[in-house]
């Protein structure tokens, strides 16, 4: 029996990234091993793009499942639209969360097929995400969340890649890039919380909720993808008004309201909130620190 996987790609404009993503994916999928056992299809959710995305996809990729949004889906809503289509209308066995700004390693889909054939439907599989600009630097291998002391961080960030480590390990949550979700996960816990976490924390909340529901989360180091970290959300760029905007914008990973909601949902003690306030104290304090030092010609180094 063949397992079917829908690769979900929510997009909003940035057609140049979508072109590179789809062309690269199609080539790798065509070369994948285990074609008789695992079938991959692409579901692209175009959330109101105004740069010709829809027409370009229709003209160049006739076999892609193209869904349309009105510009208000955001990331979580786009994933939900794609997942409901894949599971409820097309009866896929899995969905693979993807973005148009990530690039898979050459053997990614053959390795993923092997994991699917050897695995079980109680496991959500995650990928080792490396920096697109420096393939030897890890960006994420899932994350840790401690509901008692409030620690919440990505595993492996900025560490050197270990190409000899092929043992999976179990994090507390996974990012929305290269994450494989079996159909019985939404059957048990529903879909992403697009109302509270329309953009950032949608993936963290969903996979952590799945873990609490009894599903296994496993990061497989042989599943390597490269993330364009420069294309992640808005930043303050040294501007005070932009700093304020990052604290409330849906497009910012420093949106305080969304992170506060996450802690309200899952923190098990008051001291857990200490870590949250330390994070924002460092973030805001760092802005003022470097704004002051810049007056003396000292610049913060950017890797």
Structural notes for this entry:
With 303 residues, the chain is an alpha/beta fold. It folds into two domains: 3-231, Spore Coat Polysaccharide Biosynthesis Protein SpsA, Chain A (Alpha-Beta Complex); 240-294. Helix content is 36%, strand content 21%. The chain is built from nine helices and eleven strands. The protein has helices at residues 15-30, 53-60, 74-89, 108-118, 184-189, 202-212, 240-246, 256-266, 272-294, and strands at 3-11, 38-47, 65-69, 94-97, 102-104, 123-131, 138-140, 143-145, 152-154, 179-182, 216-227. α8 (256-266) packs antiparallel against α9 (272-294). The N and C termini lie far apart (47 Å).
Which descriptors would you attach to this protein?
303 residues; single chain; alpha/beta; 2 domains; globular; 4-stranded mixed β-sheet; Spore Coat Polysaccharide Biosynthesis Protein SpsA, Chain A; 5-stranded mixed β-sheet; 11 strands
- What value does the Rg take, in angstroms? 19 Å
| SSE run | EHEHEHEEHEEEEEHHEHHH
Low-confidence stretches: none
User: Within the CATH hierarchy, at the fold level, what is the topology of the largest domain?
Assistant: Spore Coat Polysaccharide Biosynthesis Protein SpsA, Chain A
Largest sheet at a glance? 5 strands, mixed
Q: Number of helical segments?
A: 9
Physical arrangement of strands within the biggest beta sheet = 3-2-1-4-10
Q: What is the element layout, followed by pairings?
A:
Layout: E1 3-11, H1 15-30, E2 38-47, H2 53-60, E3 65-69, H3 74-89, E4 94-97, E5 102-104, H4 108-118, E6 123-131, E7 138-140, E8 143-145, E9 152-154, E10 179-182, H5 184-189, H6 202-212, E11 216-227, H7 240-246, H8 256-266, H9 272-294
Parallel strand pairs: 1-2, 1-4, 2-3, 6-11
Antiparallel strand pairs: 4-10, 5-11, 6-7, 8-9
